[in-house]
Design brief:
Its EC number is 2.7.7.3. By secondary structure, the chain is an alpha/beta fold. It is about 50% helix and about 20% strand. The protein is built from 7 helices and 5 strands.
Amino acid sequence: MNAVFPGSFDPITSGHMDVLTRAARIFDHVTVTVMHNARKQGRHLFTLDERLEILREATAHFPNVSVDTFGGLLVDYMARQETGSVIVRGLRAVSDYEYELQIAHLNRQIGDAETVFIMAATRWSFVSSSMVREIASYGGNVSEMVPRASASALRRKHADVYEEREAELQAQTTSL
């Protein structure tokens, strides 16, 4: 059986990677699909192409994982898959479950698509892409919260902030 792991992945986090690692052990093949929503254009830190590149780099070590993109309804994407697939969704907390349960029921109702939930490891339950983006925007260290590909991309995106913060830390260390 195959699986589709959809998301915006702006950027992919260690929690996403945890869910993906376990999904890759369970399913024959997992397609990580980056959702492209024209209505959310400009709301992402990374462009669609950047997110795809980050994902390809972060998942390169998985022999049974591929990266794709789609726009529109996930159930339409699922219907185009050549083999039977299920949707994989990661959960961090009860609040995720309530939202994801509604989406799973809707996907089953409108497209007969099954959803499998995988709980992220407890150590990643507080990590979200939005929190990672915010920490990185201030030059904070996110290296344990994201795979290397995401950390490098965030550092490039906020290079001026990281350089400024490192200079400030260096100045503080020198003055001591």
